[in-house]
Amino acid sequence: MKTAPLAIAVRTAGTNCDGETVLALEAAGAKVQLVHLHRLIEEQGLLGGASLVVFPGGFSYGDDVAAGRIQGFEVRQHLEDPMREFVARGGFVLGVCNGFQVLVDTGLLEDPAGPGRGYALTNNVSGHFECRWVHLLNEPSRATWLPAGRVWPVPIAHGEGRLAVQGPQVLERLAAERRIVFRYVRPDGSRSDDLETCPNGSVDQIAGLCDLTGRVVGLMPHPERNVTPWHHPRWTRLASTRTEGEGLDFYRRMVAAASQSATVRSARVSTNT
Prior knowledge:
Helix content is 31%, strand content 22%. By secondary structure, it is α/β, with parallel strands linked by helices. The chain has one domain (6-272): Class I glutamine amidotransferase (GATase) domain (Rossmann fold), CATH 3.40.50. The strands form two sheets. Strands 2-1-3-4-11-10-9-6-7 form a nine-stranded mixed beta sheet.
């Protein structure tokens, strides 16, 4: 019987999507440990048995200073090296909404030897919190475990989700490195920069990014809030064509990829020993 990969969901003060995240990971086939950030800092060896680390959404530390800034500082100060080693060993990292903000702030989406990130997540152009359903186009990216060309219906809930860049060269680099994972699109997959389609005004309608390995992914929308057929606001009209929420397939693919990566890693260790 195949062993379920271990996923660590990291919570801290203000995290409020940890419950949905745990349920989505378990439904996708993972064994899940919900771990407080301070415990992970004190017991960094927990990363050794994990295949996947997830930073769920919410309002960590009340989003004081800026969204995700304090949690990002704690991760950067105490866990940056262990997290980078975890990814180098083949581990997967996901940041959703506040978790994406944390990943951006820590620099875990960037190569430390590279030119720096040159981008940030800042206030929505509307100037207020946006909470509704949108559609994402899965772009061809280094996160090859996701199906390029697929359109995902998914909810958003954020006030600081707009991706801003220092200049066009940063956007060109992200595109050239195939690190743009998701864009906000219309339901038919076509692109538009109107606020109905791209609710925060992100540059180039970008909703999610990955690192150069494709194993560290951050996105603003919440796939864990669309894992049952009843999560969708139009579920009664879609009941004949949907047996599960589309977000479950997102987590299933990630868990499978993390499990495969862990298996390959274990095989290499066994061969070397």
